[in-house]
Amino acid sequence: MVLNNIEKLLEKYENGETTLKEEQQLKSYFSQETVEPHLEMYKPMFAYFSVNQQEQFTKDLPLKTKRKFNYKWMSVAAVAVLMIGFYFKSNTTKDDLGTYDDPQEAYNEVVKSLAMISTQFNKGTSTVSYLNEMNKGTATLGYLNEIENTTNIIFKPNK
Amino acid sequence: MTQTEFLNIVMPFKDKVFRLAKRLLVSTEEAEDATQEVLIKLWNNQSKIQEYKNVEAFSMTMTKNFCLDKLKSKQAQNLKIVHSNYQDNNVSLQKEVELKDSLDWVRKIMEELPEQQKMVIQLRDIEQYELDEICDMLDMNNTAVRVALSRARKTIREKLTNTHSYGIK
Hints:
The structure holds 2 protein chains of 2 kinds. Chain A is mostly helical. Chain A is 70% helix and 0% strand. Chain B has 2 domains: 1-82, Rna Polymerase Sigma Factor, Chain: A (Orthogonal Bundle), CATH 1.10.1740.10; 91-169, Orthogonal Bundle (Arc Repressor Mutant, subunit A), CATH 1.10.10.10.
């Protein structure tokens, strides 16, 4: 009876029609010490399946917590830096406009700064005055023309 | 997601991933590398894990694709993966030697199966997945899985019968 059942199951098994439960039945049958001689060849097959089920993966996993660099935050940071920069920049310009409340004081300051400009300017023009010497030099060069005139007179008859 | 949470998700099926990889790639080292690769890929895509309906099935599909790619590239390089798991398990009893030997036959027979049949029989007979799950993992229809399964089982049985009765390898 049991044998009959097993044989039927085997046929179904070979057609790929057994359920997991029926396959379990077959496995347990073939895991016995003794099976029917004409079914002996199935034994290693099922034994192999059960042995293979035991094999395990023993290597460990090098799981690195990946630090994802988020470029979104980088742009936020950049914008923040820019904003702070603009803020400080505008602050400093507002503070230092250089205005005076008292007109007299303002007048004095203007006179002072203009005087400074004029002294610096005069320094510049004084160096320019050397150019007059240059002109003097070129005036004396004018005498050379006289020499040329005389040479012309001398060489004219030869022509 | 923290590491422990991830490991809790992955733990139940990491051995299955490894066994499937080993079934396809044969060598233990290769399979270990493949498993590591698959799990790390999963970890790197952890943000999407919640979106997957079935992480386990998804990982199995990933493993399958990864291993087939690996095999393809090996073939392209004209390299063959040679099975080389040298082990000494101190088998002393005659009975144990015999059993080991016959298990080795099954392993050899299974190595000769086409990849698809290998995967189907691995997923069904060893990992005991439902047919529908296998269809999902391997991207095959129900009949194709059934046919592959039936062919694989018949081949194994025939070859085992030969070895059993005549001692032909």
